[in-house]
User: Fold this.
Amino acid sequence: MKKIGVIGAGKLGLCFALNLEKSGFEVYAVDIAEDYVNLLQTRSFNSSEPGVNDLLHESKSFFVSTKTETIINDDLKDIFIMVATPSLPDGSYNHTHIEKVTDELTAFGKRKNVVHLYIGCTTMPGYCNKLAEKMQVYNYMVSYNPEFIAQGNIILDQQYPDQVLIGEGSIEAGDRLEKIYKKMVRNNPIFCRMDRLSAEIAKLATNCFLTTKISFANSIGDLAIKSGADHEKILAAVGADSRIGKKYLNYGFGFGGPCFPRDNKALGVFAKSQNCDLKISEATDAINKTHLEFQVKHYLKKYLPEEVIPLDYVSYKKGSVIIEESQQLALAVALAKAGRKVKISDRKEVINEVEKLYPGLFDFVNQQ
Ligand SMILES: NC(=O)c1ccc[n+]([C@@H]2O[C@H](COP(=O)([O-])OP(=O)(O)OC[C@H]3O[C@@H](n4cnc5c(N)ncnc54)[C@H](O)[C@@H]3O)[C@@H](O)[C@H]2O)c1
Assistant:
């Protein structure tokens, strides 16, 4: 099991491929974005993700191409699929890219020996079982293996995971994945092995729990502020209980970014499809919005109408350059639209994006 394929070398796939290469695997990546692949091939791609540029420059056994045939090889029996699964308007995930990739694989015909496909993308529960039916005819075994990583820390999160979630298509598939991870990680994670459907639900449930914790902390914080109590002391006391823990229990901005809001909603959508009323997913989302309204009122009161309101950053979390679903940015927009002058300090990339979306709405300070 020396050679490994990775289809979709984007934000997640590239980091995973480079971490695999660093641990001694020969990695064959495939991506359809030609210019991007050229940059990777010439090792001239410049990533904002910490650690990626160094790993890319040092890599000797990381091969990347736009051609799927580079991984159709009898020695290559393990392929990770890491293409995007964008959200549909109803909150469910769109699996079109996975379908395209698997159609390409099946176009090469039935494989002589079993080839393992590990789906690293976030999928709607039940999808991997359907995909497995399609792929088994061509001698592919499908397993689900999502990642719990945060952008800005992907390389380290992959090297030091708390848990490795495996929705195994067979015992052999689970064993192979465990072996690959044991070679790649630098800690001793818990291997959570189960069937594909359970793993798909576990992935969404983990993020739903985290969004719930954030919404809980923000609700209690809002209540403390309204009633004149000390939100920091309250949350520190609640989090000191080891049954609860203090991680993700700070008062601050609501949750945002490319994963938490989507996974939380998708779990609710899946629950509905099963005639199950999973109120927690909707409630967590609703609290995120109520909290934003609370913050807007709070800032409008805190600053005099003629004062400039300074915002330290508007990406979805400090240090990131992503503004997708950023509650900080939503706050800035609401304040500016209420007639206030808002000055945003952030990195150049973020300022450019914000200025494109809201021309002339803000003043900026370039943090770089
Ligand atoms: N990025 C994260 O922080 C994160 C965290 C957890 C889970 N995920 C999940 O991981 C998956 C990938 O996310 P991402 O952020 O890396 O997406 P991305 O858009 O950054 O990368 C996807 C890559 O796949 C390539 N691609 C698309 N179609 C292809 C095809 N037919 N053949 C080969 N390559 C193809 C694209 O060119 C792109 O480079 C998604 O399901 C996402 O929900 C992402």
Notes: The chain has 13 helices and eleven strands. The first strand starts at residue 3 and ends at 7. Residues 7-13, 30-33, 82-85, 97, 100-101, 120-122, 147, 149, 151, 258-259 surround nicotinamide-adenine-dinucleotide (CB under 6 Å). Residues 87 and 297 are 31 Å apart (CA to CA).
